Amino acid sequence: MADLETAGGAPSRAPAKLRAKGLDPLVRYMIFHWVLGALGGALCTTAFLVFDPCGIWPLIHDSGMGVPAIFLLYIGFMTSFGGLVCAAAVMFPPDDDEPPRGGLRGNVMPMNWAPRLAYARSARRA
Predict the structure, then answer these.
(1) 12, β-bridge pairs
(2) CA neighbours within 13 Å on the CB side: how many for 15?
(3) What is the chain's mean pLDDT, rounded?
(4) Do residues 86 and 29 touch, judged by C-beta distance below 8 A?
(5) Within a 13 Å sphere around the CA of 75, how many CA atoms are in the beta-carbon half?
(6) What is the distance between the alpha carbons of residues 65 and 71, in angstroms, rounded to a whole number?
């Protein structure tokens, strides 16, 4: 346990290189698309309030609780659109041609080759 660094009493097992790099690319990808969807939701809410296709603006204006109503409308649209865009981005990731990370990168025989037997040597006991 001598290789563990402690800061504030909590042991850290992550290498310094990983901590300095920042977030995982998948997490950055998800956050980016969530924010993109939230911005789209804010834009749609603004368009909904400006064009007023359902006649909701007079109801909000005359209710006496216009600011909380608009706040909840924006939060609802931004959360829904953000989640939808993030889920679609995770389900349909971009094509990347990088080889898989980690592992031993050993040579693997193709599946159409027949397996070959490897005989074990007998152990000699002294």
Answers:
(1) 5
(2) 3
(3) 81
(4) no
(5) 6
(6) 10
0.90 exceeded by pTM: no
pLDDT tens digit string along 70-106?
A: 999 999 999 999 999 999 999 988 777 776 666 666 6
Token code pair at residue 109:
């025989």
Place of tokens 């990370």: 101
Pinpoint the alpha helices (H) of the chain. Answer: 16-21, 25-51, 56-63, 66-91
pLDDT per position as a tens digit, 16-38: 555 556 888 889 999 999 999 99
The position carrying tokens 């969530």 is 34
Q: 9: which 2 tokens? A: 């009493």
Report the sign of the C-alpha dihedral through residues 45, 50, 51, 55, in that order: positive
Helices and strands (H, E) in the chain, number of each type: 4, 2
With H, G, I as helix, E, B as strand and everything else as coil, classify residue 87.
helix
Helix (H) or strand (E) holding 82: helix 66-91
